């Protein structure tokens, strides 16, 4: 799919293009873009938003918005992202122990199905941390300083990385969690709402999301006291994870901690989130853990398509490109209506396979994850620029920049790291 203008509820917008030597991936991108834009919601009395949840629930959910936000940015839905993230941040009150509400109707009302009172509403520990992380990730991609200056957002960051952790430190280890009742209306430490994570009080997806939020605040708010606190916490959590969450006997990271001790069973999100977020240090342990995740997926595949949307990120981050591509193709073949599928596919294809990553200082990193063919993403929005990248296997990469300023480009190609400044209106190349 080449860059094109598409009509949608938010008006006409220019979309990034995606081309590749793999026809099924290209057609999958075209489907994902058109499907995702059908979920956009605008109108009188409506929060600028997009559908983020089950297709029979006209609402936007915190977990889904967090995971759909990057794909939404790539599709030009920055106004919607900010409006929804702001809405969740404002709902994280002291009376709710700084949990954001789980879901809202498109007009901004709390979703009654998930909220009964301030003491009785669905809450899962990873969500507030993911929302903090995604707010600051949105700033990296857009350069919109409202993510750094709006009091409703900055107070949310402060409350989550300080008060929320203190209030929910159930085991006294500085890792937020819940009491292990299994009742999501009383609070769950994990996104896994099934029976594979019984009695968990802290969970792998919880500690991974907490670490990612700390790292995002550390990098996104430099020079502030909150960033200094978050930096220390990020270091502490990583040390704690390597020291207390690794099972030498089972050769994997544990799923979480319950009253009876560590839980080592495969449990979907708690098992793969340490890889999704990058908490697991690259090396033999991470490799062994991802082997465990791969075996678990074969023996007990998730019952819901939403769970599969995380897998490409987990495997791409650690260079397991063939496995990531397998799950991207699984999502494409599903043609699932669930909004998270189309939004995340846009991100997996445009930024996942190309390795497009925006650092806190605005530098752009690329790396091909389709080493057996070629892949090209064009017109990708990066702050006030549009960038286009092409990878020919792992032999060469080309970057073009359109916009008002130069861009620092760090190309990882053929095992080399090539850094250069690309001037607007020009093309640069890096070779192995």
**pLDDT under 50 segments (min length 5)?**
3-10
Main sheet?
5 strands, antiparallel
Radius of gyration: 21 Å
Question: How far is it from the N-terminal to the C-terminal residue, by CA?
Answer: 28 Å
Structure characterization notes:
A five-stranded antiparallel beta sheet has the order 3-17-18-19-22. It has a four-stranded mixed beta sheet with strand order 15-16-20-21, with no helix packed on it. It starts with a strand and ends with a strand. By secondary structure, it is α+β, with helices and mostly antiparallel strands. The model is unreliable at 3-10 (pLDDT under 50). Helix 1 (23-37) packs across helix 14. It has 14 helices and 22 strands.
Notable features of this structure?
4-stranded mixed β-sheet; alpha+beta; 5-stranded antiparallel β-sheet; disordered N terminus; 432 residues
Q: How do the helices and strands line up, and which of them pair or pack?
A:
Elements: E1 4-6, E2 13-15, E3 17-20, H1 23-37, E4 40-41, E5 49-50, E6 59-61, H2 62-74, H3 78-91, E7 103-105, E8 115-117, E9 120-121, H4 126-142, H5 146-149, H6 151-167, E10 200-203, H7 204-220, H8 225-244, E11 246-247, E12 252-253, E13 256-258, E14 261-263, H9 269-276, H10 284-299, H11 305-308, H12 311-317, H13 321-334, H14 339-352, E15 357-358, E16 364-367, E17 374-382, E18 385-392, E19 396-402, E20 407-413, E21 416-422, E22 427-431
